[in-house]
Specification:
Strand content of chain A: under 5%
Strand order of the largest sheet of chain B: 2-1-3-4-5-11
CATH architecture of the largest domain in chain B: 3-Layer(aba) Sandwich
Structural class of chain B: alpha/beta
Distance between the termini of chain A: 25 Å
CATH class of the largest domain in chain B: Alpha Beta
Strand content of chain B: 15-25%
Number of strands of chain A: 0
Order of helices and strands of chain A: HHHHHHHHHHHHHH
Shape of chain B: elongated
Distance between the termini of chain B: 65 Å
Number of helices of chain A: 14
Number of strands of chain B: 12
Order of helices and strands of chain B: HEHEHEHEEHEHEHEHEHEHEEH
Number of domains of chain B: 2
Radius of gyration of chain B: 23 Å
CATH superfamily of the largest domain in chain B: Response regulator
CATH topology of the largest domain in chain B: Rossmann fold
Helix content of chain A: over 70%
Helix content of chain B: 40-55%
Largest sheet of chain A: none
Oligomer: heterodimer
Radius of gyration of chain A: 21 Å
Chain lengths: 342, 315
């Protein structure tokens, strides 16, 4: 980390905060898991805990793989001090486009997936350009994209859910594309779904990128102080454009998983997902001010939210209680952050 | 670190508060004395009044049978969540699952997997594909539409001009309520002079009705695909200020106690057609299945018409 463009003293402090943050996050995760073990109902027939089974554990990761991918991309953007409100809509757009290309137009899986990921990346590129070149506030630029991408999803689908036989001209009139089933069915031996593996792969890759590459260091530098980063020779617009493009790319990937999971291209898919993604990043400990945090923290944040949701669901806790619980958890997480800064 | 204690305590309080409501499920798990049947019910969402009524009906029907314990889950209009809920019920080892699916295709697989594990599944209102379920119970929207059509023919003496305020026409209920109605008025002198897709929404219906009122001097009846739309149409006529809300007959569908039935009682609607929630019938079927009896694969529930006369006859 010695070749960082930012002053070394700052970096040491950051390293310290990161280590502490990691420990705090893991401790919180441990508390949540313990609560899960204590409060999860047992199998009504056998009396075994249904929480401590491989199936429940892998389900938790699988159910949160979409949010996880969004949180992964969101971390990059938040590290630069920005925010991306458009990821939920991009999930819906990519899911609809993927289903439309496969079911409607009969494309092959590689071509359809590539087209969707490229389209997602382009949307992110546009976000980045609006923010860095045209000096729009991230909140405003991505708000516009959030609305527009949702509209685009409805335009390409004609306002209906894309599924076999939904229209006369669709190439596929019966059954679902096999890739839908493949992505969401547990692989033999490891008993994990390919969708989950995509999420884990994204987290691992981005952890390495953020920690060990110059791009990662530039993300922190831009988020820490844009002016300082610019003066030290970093091309700030370029860094931001990459961050937003990658963020939208991961959102599109989440869209492919969404379509596969429900075997429908739903133009309404991903509605309010951006909020859960932001919550996961914040609960992990990455601050919205930028320049502080990391991908490992986000992974912990995603796990905390995923576990809490699973525990609430297994206990059939009514929705009003869940909303209260989630609100409380976010507040507590932010209190912890403020404590760290002090 | 003190915030950690706070975090843990807060989380524990909330989770426990939630669990407290479910306490019998944990404690009653091992109890064999007086066999308790655990039923898992996954509702697609609780945003629609009709579905809230379905939950209330199931709760009421189940309370009459102390041997039944229903675990209610709300999928929040999210297909993936509903898939997870079915899986969770299977893991939990419930004796029977009742589901009102959000989507047909994506829930077919989880329901089939539950059946494979030997858990009977009752499907309400919206079907799943294939035949891997125990029993389907639903209302017949085509029949409801047809009954509404016949009612309009009779009420207007076989001749008149009507407005049709449709539900979301990309959905089957919307399509069926329309085609059924067309069949019901076939061969009569009833003419549909204005129709619009109001997407089940009262404000939309009010807007569309205003356009209809502006365009036509003579409107004899309004057929709306749900009660809120019929109510919206009534409000539009009232706001017009020509007193036409008193001469036009407003007809709705769904007949919920606090909605359509109340509107009929208040003289706003001239009739509403009950779309059955299937709740009581689902519990009946569940009891039979758990007792080892066979039930029909498909149970289609008939509609009933609610008018001032039927309400008075009841009292």
């Amino acid at each position: 980390m010695t070749d960082s463009p930012v002053a070394p003293r700052r970096l040491n402090l950051r390293g310290l905060a990161l280590t502490m943050g990691n420990l705090r996050g893991l401790l919180a995760l441990a508390v949540v898991v313990a609560l899960g073990i204590m409060f999860t109902p047992r199998n009504l027939a056998t009396g075994h805990s249904i929480f401590l089974t491989w199936q429940t554990q892998s389900d938790i990761l699988f159910e949160y793989s979409e949010y996880g991918l969004l949180a992964c991309g969101m971390t990059l953007v938040i590290l630069t001090g920005g925010i991306d409100l458009s990821v939920g809509s991009i999930v819906g757009f990519a899911a609809t486009l993927f289903a439309l290309l496969l079911i409607g137009h009969g494309w092959g899986v590689p071509a359809a997936a590539a087209a969707c990921l490229a389209a997602g990346g382009l949307a992110g590129l546009l976000n980045g350009v609006l923010i860095s070149r045209f000096r729009m506030q991230p909140f405003v630029a991505t708000l516009a994209m959030m609305v527009a991408a949702r509209g685009a999803a409805k335009v390409i689908s004609g306002g209906i859910k894309v599924q076999p036989a939904a229209r006369d001209w669709y190439a596929l009139q019966q059954g679902s594309p096999p890739v839908f089933d493949w992505l969401t069915r547990s692989l033999p031996v490891i008993r994990v779904q390919p969708a989950t593996l995509l999420f884990l792969l994204a987290i691992v890759t981005m952890t390495i990128v953020v920690r060990y590459t110059s791009f990662g260091r530039r993300l922190y530098a831009v988020g820490g102080s844009e002016e300082a980063a610019r003066l030290s020779g970093i091309r700030v617009p370029q860094v931001k454009i990459w961050a937003y493009s990658l963020c939208a790319f991961f959102a599109a990937l989440a869209g492919l998983i969404n379509a596969s999971r429900i075997s429908i291209g739903d133009p309404e898919a991903g509605f309010t997902y951006e909020l859960d993604a932001i919550a996961a990043v914040v609960i992990g400990g990455t601050t919205l001010n930028g320049g502080q945090g990391g991908m490992g923290l986000t992974f912990v944040g995603v796990l905390i939210i995923a576990y809490i949701n699973k525990i609430l669901s297994l206990n059939a806790v009514p929705e009003p209680w869940r909303l209260l619980a989630k609100g409380l958890i976010i507040v507590v997480a932010v209190l912890i952050q403020q404590r760290r800064k002090a | 670190m003190k915030y950690y204690a706070l975090a843990a305590a807060a989380a524990a309080v909330v989770v426990c508060a939630g669990c407290a409501r479910q306490a019998p499920s944990g404690s009653g798990a091992g109890g064999q004395q007086g066999k308790v049947w655990n039923i898992g019910f996954s509702q697609s969402n609780l945003g629609e009044p009709w579905r809230v009524q379905m939950n209330a009906d199931i709760k009421k029907a189940a309370e009459a049978h102390p041997e039944l314990k229903v675990i209610f889950k709300d999928a929040q209009n999210d297909t993936a969540t509903q898939q997870n809920q079915v899986k969770e019920f299977v893991q939990q080892g419930v004796d029977l699952i009742i589901i009102s699916p959000k989507e047909t295709v994506p829930l077919t697989q989880p329901v089939a997997e539950a059946m494979d594990k030997g858990i009977p599944v009752i499907v309400l209102d919206r079907e799943v594909q294939g035949d891997k379920y125990t029993c389907f119970i639903g209302g017949d929207n085509k029949q409801i539409g047809e009954e509404a059509g016949k009612h309009v023919v009779k009420a207007l003496g076989g001749e008149g001009q009507i407005v049709e305020l449709k539900g979301l026409m990309t959905t089957t209920p919307g399509q069926d309520r329309h085609t059924g109605f067309v069949k019901g008025i076939q061969g009569s002198g009833i003419k549909t002079i204005f129709e619009a897709d109001c997407r089940w929404l009262e404000p939309e219906a009010q807007k569309e009705m205003k356009s209809a009122l502006a365009r036509f001097d003579r409107i004899d009846a309004v057929y709306a695909h749900n009660d809120p739309s019929a109510h919206g149409a009534y409000m539009a006529a009232k706001q017009e200020g020509k007193g036409r809300e008193k001469t036009i007959k407003f007809i709705g569908i769904d007949g919920l106690p606090n909605e359509g039935v109340k509107y009929v009682r208040d003289g706003i609607l001239s009739a509403t057609f009950v779309y059955p929630t299937c709740g009581p019938e689902a519990i009946d079927a569940a009891l039979k299945i758990l007792a080892g009896e066979t039930v029909p694969k498909r149970i289609m529930l008939p509609t009933t018409v609610i008018t001032k006369e039927t309400l008075e006859a009841k009292n």
